[in-house]
Amino acid sequence: MTVLRAEALSVALRQGGAEIPVLNRIDLALAPGRVLGLVGESGAGKSMIGRTVAQLLPPHFAVSGGKLEFAGRDLVSMPPRARRALLGREIAFIPQEPLTALNPVRTIGSQFAEHFARLGEGDHRARTVAALEAVHLPDPAGLLARYPHQLSGGMCQRVLIAMAFASRPKLVVADEPTTALDVTIQARIMELMQEMRARDGTAVLFITHDLRLAAQVCDDIAVLYAGSVVEQGPAAAVLGGPRHPYTRCLQLAIPAMTGPRRALLALPEQMPGLRAMTTLRGCRFAPRCPLAAEQCRAAPPPLGTEDHRAACFRAELTPTIAPPEETLATHIQPGNPVLDVAGLGKRFRTGSLFRPGHMDAVSEASLAIASGEFVAVVGESGSGKSTLGRLLVGLERPTAGRILLAGRDVTAGTEADRRHRVRNVQMVFQDPQSALNPRRRVAAIMTQAMEAVGAPAAERARRAAELLAEMGLAPETGARSPAQLSGGQRQRVNIARALCTVPPLLVADEIVSGLDVSVQAQLLNLLRRLRAELDFALLFISHDLAVVRHVCDRVLVMHRGRIVEHGPTEQVFAAPRHEYTRTLLDSMPKDFPMA
Amino acid sequence: MIRRSLRSGRVIAGGLIVLAVLACALAAPWLAPHDPDEQNLLTTLLPASWQAGGDPAYWLGTDSLGRDVLSRLLFGARVAMSVALIAAFGAMIVGAALAYLAGYVGGWLDWLVGRAVDVWMSFPPVILSLILMTGLGTGLRNVILAIVLVDWTRFCRVLRSEVIVVARRDYVAAARLVGFSHWRTVSREIVPATIPLVVTLLTLEMGIAVVVEAILSFVGLGVRSDQIAWGQMIADGRDAIYQAPWNLLAPVLAIFFTVAGFNLLGDGLRRSLDVRMTEGRE
Questions:
Q1: Structurally, how many domains does chain A consist of?
Q2: Backbone phi, psi, residue A374, to 5°
Q3: CB-CB neighbors (< 8 A) of A430 in chain B
Q4: pLDDT of the residue at A328
């Protein structure tokens, strides 16, 4: 008995008479009470499978072949009415963005009432309270009268999980349900999903880009690449001994939480786009595959029918793919202090003229960074880590304490302080989409610092060429505009601009979050190479503990605006002293055993 | 960006109309069959040439003083176009300067500009311009001044919110961090991003200026009486609507097409320049 079965399911994009395949003959089977993980990088087609089940395909996308059955009934040929009757009742969804999935102008109670009315059931109130209780929300009765904006993201996601499981569905499709949430909340949400699944015997289709999380949650895993399943099988087998080179490479691209630090394997380039895929005759992974041979480029390899199967001609060679040798010195002797901060505080005024209030985003923060040192600030959203970064570079003015930057007190933020900062500290922003002016060329963006001092064009062009080479970008990239670059390339341009004048201190705010793991690995390797070649200290703001462990020598843990723990990375991770650090570390999904 | 907007039918149609009116205004002395001020009291209130009793020498007929309507229409385009261009640019300069200042600096300055715009916009614009004209006296220069003083708020309010959105982008903060002065940050990072909006507003404002000038001239508070304006022609033509309908119809249609041209152009530019409206199509 299977809840969901896909047989040779194909989805295509119809554009100008042509049909571009998006999903390629997908075979899946999901039994009651099981969790099937769909993992892969963005563009792999994992969300497209969820959307096909939900009948939420974007315009011009349509099922072009194969079967998709839910409890023995074909979803593709089913009349829309019958399909709609299933959705929300027997098939439920947990979306990625909890805040946008709830109606902002209606109370939680009225949204539940509507949901129950649709299910054709009475006695809403008692059942709503019971449903909210089941997801461990405090004061469920009081929650009914609240609006979504009065709840945190984690609470909203719990409300949506309660709603999804309220109808006791046979199938729940969870599309990146915790990507927008903090790691401690993620751990709780995952526990909750397991609990609800055990209670109702619901099958879960779990879509995620996070291999570590998939290893922890899923019974079975299907790895997707460019619209095809490349490897499939029981989670323990797939992640414990991957047979497809892509799965192996993804694993080697993720920094480890335990064991010795190893260099990351960075796959070259990126997944082919929809159009490029149609011109590939052989295995779609072949252009990036370290094992690719003549055979792989001629015809696509079959997936096979074994319990643990991989679409690869050379699967037996997969375990031989090894991470690159660690060649760079990881511990550079720190030199003179670059930054010395004592008792730094930032208080934001809130409330109105008549009811003044305040919020301490950062309080009593003290830290020092020596030249050449890589220091991490970790914390969850709202911990004040970004505000700390903005205070240091001068985008916010502190309300307490002092900042000593390269021997000068720049707390006051006068014009002279600003000029001092321009020479001594630069910032890499989180979102390159917002941080790069879409109207400028890449070369102009990278050498903006020289434009500020009126450097001649020839000199700027020379420096732009140097920076492009340093960042591993092709020389012709300089003439492009940011919109023509991929996410990883944009982030390199973003880093290059901050490094143009090689300032003694660089502040990087979440620069690898939101990127695919293979791109993340490229950037982390780049950071470590730059460290060996150039002389700069780094304050690395991140929520990802594994990334921090990979990059930084020391770590500061922030919680509610305060630095609650700091010390050498290895030491803090191995023996955390503050309770919050322990919670944070415990919430991280564990490493999978590496072959 | 320019190529994309030239693909839009609205831009082409609007642009052609505006160019045609502009050409008429510039070439009026050569195009006009008669001196527009030349009176011929023997042939007053002639209907158009194709109507019964029309004179082929006066294609659109004559007015109550025997002046040629077509020639007056062509010369009237000069006033309309000067007001449209100069007043719209003037309103843009005043409104945009305050908008960039308020949106970029923020704080109390933004508050002050915002409240000034609120107070200003609480007056009905036509009444406000009539009051201004009464105070300033008639004349082309004062018409332009009145329109600038009334309509700068239109630019200021719309542009200010756009400037605030752009100024919050990280690339603006990044420009400051690499050492850009405030002036350079605004001129290199913020202004280019808001140019499409400014161009669109400017075109729409030109259409508005044509209407406002016509209203003021119609009630006799516009240009001096010896200057030829479409609004004045409408006022003159009202009395003779049955004898010589084109005295009234010609300036009304001229205003209609000119304003429609500006609005088509503005709407087309907005559609092709606004990223939010083009994103889905490319």
A1: 3
A2: -110, 115
A3: 170
A4: 57
